[in-house]
Amino acid sequence: MFAQKIRQLREEKQLFQRQISAALEMDNALYCKIESGSRQARREQVIKLAELLDTNQEELLKLWLADKVYEIVSEEDGANDVLNIVAESIVEYKKSKPL
Known about the structure:
CATH topology: 434 Repressor (Amino-terminal Domain)
Helix content: over 70%
Number of domains: 1
Number of helices: 6
Shape: elongated
Largest sheet: none
CATH architecture: Orthogonal Bundle
């Protein structure tokens, strides 16, 4: 999800991978792995990517986080049940959190 999105945005901006990797101050091979989905970006890199690609930071962070969650639960039996439990827990946490 995240990898496809940053690739799409980069291509729409007609930027090369080496331009993005230079702006992120990382090796081009590492950025290529992030864009191919074989390596996870760090949060601060996602924030910088949102700026470089002129896109919504919150949306990009959500895709990045969704990929992290997917990596953890995707091969587990009952993954949907686990995600539902987490979603319910988040709702309950927000209800109990003081404003």
